[in-house]
Design brief:
Layout (H helix, E strand, L loop, with lengths): L1 H5 L4 E5 L5 H8 L5 E4 L3 H8 L18 E4 L8 E6 L14 H11 L7 E4 L7 H14 L8 E4 L18 E5 L2 H12 L6 E3 L3 H31 L4 H8 L21 H11 L6 H26 L8 E5 L14 H10 L4 E5 L5 H8 L13 E4 L4 H4 L3 H6 L6 E4 L13 E4 L1
Parallel strand pairs: 1-2, 1-4, 2-3, 4-5, 5-6, 7-8, 9-10, 9-11, 11-12, 12-13
Antiparallel strand pairs: 6-7
Length: 430
Amino acid sequence: MFKEIQNKEKKIAVIGLGYVGLPLALEFAKKFSVIGFDINQERVEMMKNGQDPSEELEAEAFENKDIVFSADPEVLKDAHFFIVAVPTPVDEHKVPNLRPVLGASHTVGKVLKKGDYVVYESTVYPGCTEEDCVPILEQESGLKFNEDFKIGYSPERINPGDKEHTVANILKIVAGSDEESLREISAVYDSIITAGIYEAPTLKVAEAAKVIENTQRDLNISFMNELAVIFDKMNIDTKEVLKAAGTKWNFIKLSPGLVGGHCISVDPYYLLHKAKQIGYDPQVILSGRRINDSMPAFIAKRLVQTLIAKDKTLSKCKVLVQGVTFKENVADIRNSKVADLIKELMGYSVNVHVADPHASPNEVAHEYNLTLVDKISDDYDAIMVAVNHKEYVDQDAAFFKSISKEEPIVFDIKGIYEPAEMEGMTYWRL
């Protein structure tokens, strides 16, 4: 398979051209013939014109690449090595929503041929690829797994907004359904990954490795968040505590914060779902999720208490929230906990203005029914800096005073500023 791909006798198809699939497809297209497939025609048209809908890649990334973008499933008939990189979210009940990955399996199954390979990059629970996806591929194609076609799993490790850790220089985990598939799939990925390949012994090991990477981070941050709540009640600056504790050589340096996005706040639910299926009720993972999910309400209540302490009438208060994306310097608003925070504040009848230089106003309106202001005002009762976008890092006391009423209240969720820099105002950080 690899030699035929190398000689451009067979094509690679990447299904799902989001923040994972698009950079991967373009990286492969430097050397091989690639089909980039996405069900969203509007996004496909943007990519045909050298635009990344996720705003992660520059126009130059599309230049001199052997790639065809399409939303027509028929073009997939020309491919023999399929990579599925669709999102795997959770629903409103925090239950894994496998519709995208199962839908992609139906699409690939319809064009699957003898000798083809299918590699999944979407985050799933251990066993999902073999137990949920393979039967669909067999059903749609009429082919036999491991006899007529092979399967692989190679979990994505893309970090949105990170210009240092890109596709090529992140160590890649690869697993195959047998020795031959592992060898061939490793060779395909090794041709573009400069950081190297780690061959996992089984598909389930690779699936489990991915899901615990973000679960571990979720748990560590939940501990920081619980400390922040405790220390706030004791009137102790959490950031100063962590700086002091961080002087020990083996202290793990992490910070409290809002845990949103499409990975850290989602992946643990996939592991929880599978654990419950096999009869185990996880305690630590679920506890961490509860703490992190509770932070928007905690921060909103803390701000409301501060406003009330200043003898302000909540229904007459105007608060500016700076930043609504799930992390700094990206346009991605999926599963943003800042949106939850804003809605918590609105629940107290506070008038909230939302600003973000990176987020799409249309996407924010569609996803959260929130409106981004075109221009900020100069009479805010409080300002909440929720995301540490580069545009906010250099804001100083003079700026906050210029957009506030008589005594500014600044809530610094990401701990961007130092208390000493915020004289003449009420300053609070998580």
